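Two records follow; treat each independently.
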Amino acid sequence: MSSSIEYVRLGQSGLKVSKIILGCMTYGSPEWQKWVLGKDEGIAHIKAAYDAGINAFDTANVYSNGLSEIILGEAIKKYEFPRDKIVVLTKVYGVVGKEPDLNLFGDPKSDTVGYVNQHGLSRKHIFDSVKHSLKRLQLDYIDVLQCHRFDYDTPIAETMTALHDVVQAGYVRYIGMSSCHAYQFHAMQNYAIQNHLTPFISMQNHYNLIYREEEREMFPTLKMFGVGAIPWSPLGRGKLTRPFAKEGGTKRGETDKLLVRYSGIQSNEAIINRVEELAKKKGLSMAQLSIAWMLSKEGVTAPIVGTTSIENLKELIGDEG
């Protein structure tokens, strides 16, 4: 494992993560999403990231219905990554489907198709989900357990108490939040603090050069609480890695269903053109420039980067050999 990469504290906690976190949503089964890579490629990517100095790996129970966690766990075991050096982040909230192509994330029909009590942030689901994640990861504990979404149906008191209890039980070291509104984060964090429970140390939010809504409410909230941001989609699902007129580029760029969130926004073209211009001027790739911009923003601890190309991964982490 290289020591050239910088390690920083996650928020005001004592936990240190590499300035780039490897996103493992990319690894699992193409039956779940067409652009997802299989086991062998996934393990190779994880090894390349670790060798370059990345010590933090982000996954979720729902990614490829658990297979992403399995692949990460197998990579850790195969290459004997020292457990006291690496940081494993996973998530709880969504349904882990029994079929490889099932994707019920946020689907209100989950109860009616056999998944009652297997989603959300209830005490039962948090404990059950942690147990299953540990088994898939082949680990004794999770470094950072993140709530994948806000649960409108479960009382905040129940959720925050359960999160505190999985920490006290030794299954989890720290907790974090992901993809919610600032008022929701504020309410959850305040409840934990006021009731002497375990508070969040991180927020995994959607943030990049073409989506900056988080600057309005979320970033000031995180600063007030001393919580670190670890943004997902820092490259706008590939939009910030190539000229505006150039479509596709990778299998993910051609098939990712969530690309629609960036469609029809008039300012995108001007922003992407400016990124292209500055990247050429500075002798960087567009992806490198976009990541450098993000790392310059106050409150951002480390972006979560995922790619379907090992060459692109090495370029981003500065290990082009």
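The next record belongs to a different protein.
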Amino acid sequence: MRKSAYLRNELNLTQYEMAELLNITRSQLSLFELGLRELPTNALIRSSQIGLFMATSKTPEAKDFPQIADWEEEKEKFLAKALKDCEHYQSIIIRKLPKMEEEYRATLNLLQLIIFFKEQANKEDALRPAALLTLEDKAMKSLERCGPKEVVRQKYQLLILQQQEEILKKLIESNRVDKQELE
């Protein structure tokens, strides 16, 4: 790999793009980078000009390009929306958790009642087996929806969202600091 490949990597260009910049074919550039062929004189001159420009130019900053301002605005909007969404999802989980825990406790009471009725199965005033099956089915569905696994999953999700909120706030704050430094 020669100087041309180095310049190509510095500019983040593909071989095809660099070849167009040098006004040669991609295969000529490829053979040159492999050391199997020399570049035409015009391409060598242009490559030298690019290398000289890269060596003597100052490091570009975002404020030097008006197009970047639009991207910065988009970034701010994205971060603000992400923070708002994060807070919204947290509020949903915070509202949901107590209801889930209450339903879980009610399901445990229902399971305890089912066990009681199963023990009473031999007595004359026992509950019908079909009714017991219906209650058991309802309890199992409730456990799937609001059991310990789901409660832990929601708490875990809440912790992740809280961490995400902290990170987003730091990003927004660092974005403000960066913006002030640019001005």
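Discussion point: The first helix runs from residue 3 to 10. How would you locate this feature using only the token line?
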